[in-house]
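Appendix C. Worked example: Helix-turn-helix domain-containing protein
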Amino acid sequence: MDTNDIFANAKGTEGLAQSFVHKEQRLDRAGITLMALPPGHVSFEIKTNKTLLNVQPFGSRSAVDYQRVEGTDYQGAVLNGCAFDMFAKGISLDLQARNFDWEIVLEFDDGVLSKLDAEAYDGFWEMPDMAYGRRDASAAQISTLMIEHIRFGDRDPVYLETLALAMVRRCMTVGRAPQRLVSARGNGPRIERAIAHLEDNLASKPSVAELADIAAMSPSWFAKSFRQETGKAVHAFARDLRLERAKAQLIATNKPISEISRECGFSDQSHMTRSFQSAFGTSPAKIRNDR
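Step 2, the predicted output written as structure tokens:
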């Protein structure tokens, strides 16, 4: 079963089959297929017929309920952004997970990775499970740009190819040298701590000063570094996080809309409705009814 078959048969809360058809981009020159994975449940048991790379952007969150790689069970966990997994061709993979936000998946034709970096590729795949649960701020930032372009851009293949190759090369480097899991600018871990705090406290709407304190940085330096690391201002990042979290809950749960609005940090249900109309062009009630 190949990747497209997996998602065509998956029963995601947003209809993964339809979502993947509309959020996929083939890069023929690079031999890479990009897929923007929407929020929802994913459950499959396969032997990969191509190499796969899955990257979480900043601010995203997923819950791995169960995962077995090559017969080895891995404990379930909640991943808060910046994580990536890479699985070589021929790997047995059994996965049950929930994505609360968008993620990016890359599928590689045979020989693509070895052409990019034969030395890194050979060393990397001596132990395939080494690719599971890595974290890197630079790869996360690139994935954010890719997801936004696939979802909302004009699908420029040259731009996407450049981002894809940069992200693949970065993940291969990090996989080969596990100690290099931070941004080249050195502030990645601090920003990650602040993002984790923001994700865990959306309802209380942490201020920039509070997040800067978590990151052990001055507010002005934190705001500048945050934009450098994520590509967004703090308020824009928090807004998008609230929107995507609320949208995922509308689709995946039966909670009252008013309760979701409070949990996600909106002032009230009316505020959430206005925000949805501005961001998605539709209302929370319509998204729930169409799930």
